[in-house]
């Protein structure tokens, strides 16, 4: 009889704290969300077209001074970020979604790299890439990542370095 009482007590103690809806929907302690959305293909100079993407970030991590930002970036900007991180940081940088060489051949009958399906696949790949990098504690201190996520234009002549978390 004694054993049953202890079990009942232990179970009762476990059930005391019910999670409220507020708890369930409260912002997690630390969060960093990055969405790559709204691809827009633009006619550039000559017949040069390019697609850029909106990179939206929301965070409460102290290392980021701006808690919400939205910038537009091209694939080449993601390449720039990857190269900077490979050169200056100790992290293993994940690969970008592949270059679209086959899709740039002039005799293809379709729109190649400006095709919706390709753009959507690339968008997803870029989103996975930037979330992996931005989620890495060492990358979060790199100035190039902050510039990529938060500055309207990337200053390619910037001085690489660490962000001091003040």
TrEMBL record:
SMART domains: PX. Pfam families: PX. The keyword Transport applies. It is a peripheral membrane protein. One of its GO terms (molecular function) is phosphatidylinositol-3-phosphate binding. Its main location: cytoplasm. InterPro entries: PX_dom, PX_dom_sf, Sorting_Nexin. It is found in: Cytoplasm; Golgi apparatus membrane; Prevacuolar compartment membrane. Keywords: Acetylation, Cytoplasm, Golgi apparatus, Lipid-binding, Membrane, Phosphoprotein, Protein transport, Transport. Required for retention of late Golgi membrane proteins. Component of the retrieval machinery that functions by direct interaction with the cytosolic tails of certain TGN membrane proteins during the sorting/budding process at the prevacuolar compartment. Binds phosphatidylinositol 3-phosphate (PtdIns(P3)). This is Sorting nexin-3. GO terms for biological process: endocytic recycling; late endosome to Golgi transport; protein transport; regulation of protein metabolic process. It comes from the Eukaryota. It comes from Parnassius mnemosyne. GO terms for cellular component: early endosome membrane; Golgi membrane; retromer complex. Residues 31-155 form the PX domain. Belongs to the sorting nexin family.
